Automatic annotation (TrEMBL):
Biological processes annotated in GO: cell differentiation; positive regulation of gene expression; sporulation resulting in formation of a cellular spore
Compartment list: Cytoplasm; Mitochondrion
Keyword field: ATP-binding, Chaperone, Cytoplasm, Mitochondrion, Nucleotide-binding, Stress response, Transit peptide
GO cellular component labels: cortical actin cytoskeleton; mitochondrion; nucleolus
The protein, known as: Heat shock protein Hsp90 family protein
Location of this fragment in the whole protein: 92 to 638 of 714
Record GO terms (molecular function): ATP binding; ATP hydrolysis activity; ATP-dependent protein folding chaperone; unfolded protein binding
Organism: Cavenderia fasciculata
Family under the similarity heading: Belongs to the heat shock protein 90 family.
Amino acid sequence: VGVADKHSFQTETQKILHIVAESLYTEKEVFIRELISNASDAIEKARHLQLTSQKIMDGDLPFEIKIATDDDKKTLIIQDTGVGMTKEELIKNLGRIGYSGTGDFLKNLGDNPDKASVIGQFGVGFYSCFMVGHTIKVYSRSAAVGSKGYLWESDGAGSYSISEADGVQRGTKIIIHLKPNSYEFAKKATVEAIIKKYSNFVGFPIALNGQAVNTIKALWTLNKSQVTDEEHKEFYQFISKSYDTPNYKIHFATDTPLTIRSIFYIPSQHVEKYGMGRMEPGVSLFSRKVLIQQKAKGLLPDWMRFVRGVVDSEDIPLNVSREHLQDNGLIQRISQVLVKRILKTLDDESKRDPAKFNVFMNEFAGFFKEGLITDFKWKDDISRLLRFESSHEDLEADNKNTSLEEYTKRMKPDQNQIFYITVPSREVALSSPYYEPFKNKGVEVFFLYNTLDDFVFSNIGHFGDKKIVSVESKEAEEFISKDQEKLKDTLSQSEVSDFLKWITDVCGDKVSMAKATTRNTSTPALIVDHESATFRRMMKMMDPSKQ
Ligand code: ADP
Ligand code: MG
């Protein structure tokens, strides 16, 4: 073993090192993410070297990452069997901040598909260990056959030293001597939780104090057909920290406008209905299998907060701390693609298994209605998914729900509108004088039982080219009276007009017009062409003077 060489960090490195250690990262714990990412990159490079048929040092060593905590010595050790570093590489890569040996490696890779597995790019991650360590020792031995082992050591102040070291195996072993305010990172449970949070899906096995940690695969990186239901269930339970079985899964990959690999799950139940407060968003953003934002806001719209899942995009531009994206417009574009896909899949599912879908929609309808009202751009897609009761007689006894699309398929040849009535219950609807002429004519009517649905229908407005109108509207009246039989001659023309004149006189400006009709047979008179009853109730609620 030779004498230690002393080197000073470059001046800029000294300054930046201070920034990295003090303020670049919001959470100290991310140094673990950074060191594991480096270890994974190093192994990826060793694998690449071996694949391109070059002999590597210690060729039998398995590709793995070993982490060890020591609560007595207050140390944390992270060791990999990757490419390691020669003395020159130690100086170049660890002595100079902002220099990324990994970045160079990527440039040389060209279009090789292995590129997507490499994480590093900024050349600052390594220094994050000075946030928690007062002394860092890096033992490293390059994979180049015949290379020697070295120890790089620094207190992160002004200098580092390098000396030859015996007994070093291929790869890199980093020993962090923790500062007193960071002793928590010598505890196994703490470190395990952090590994699971950020680095659970890196592509190589991680063992913590001899035990495997990352046993769950990054399913989103696999082909759909490679993943079993059992694996989906396990993965879903891991990311959503729950014990149920997902109702629907959406495994989606695209390369435009960006490379996105994603998996979404729709749980079988949600907790908001128990009044347990608003759910948090359930989709996390990853880049190259490393967590960027847990439960990311903005990835899916807020009303989709019941969806659980993972989105990974290898080419999203990250800031240096890898905690934020540089481009917010980009996230919005990704979001649009994802929402479209989720809604499309649900529409397909609704046709594949309508009964299952109906159960799902009964449970989650509130979210979709919220989406329809608050997020106008998805109105059409959402309105296809919603289900409401209707008067159609062939619906099942225990499920009278139907879709707007099915309704339009059953419409009469001369019918151009979709009709609905807002009533307290099915019984009231069936005996309502407004519904009566539709029933007689065999025209289907949606039965809405609450103010929200009435509001949702007014928001939908149109379905395709069909206008949605209340049975109390003028359009409904025109539709019903257009093929009316001639008035039976029980009353003469002049008697009818006298009677209508009398009504308008008595009602004054409360009605604008009165007319005779054969639309109803069991009700003498009806008010039509006014806001729906529910709408009037809502207006009253908002304007106390009208109460
Ligand atoms: P980045 O990972 O963004 O390149 P880092 O500061 O994390 O930046 O690391 C700087 C460089 O040090 C890496 O690019 C890599 O060349 C080298 N390096 C860091 N950790 C290891 C390791 N465990 N094995 C081999 N090389 C490493
Ligand atoms: Mg790195």
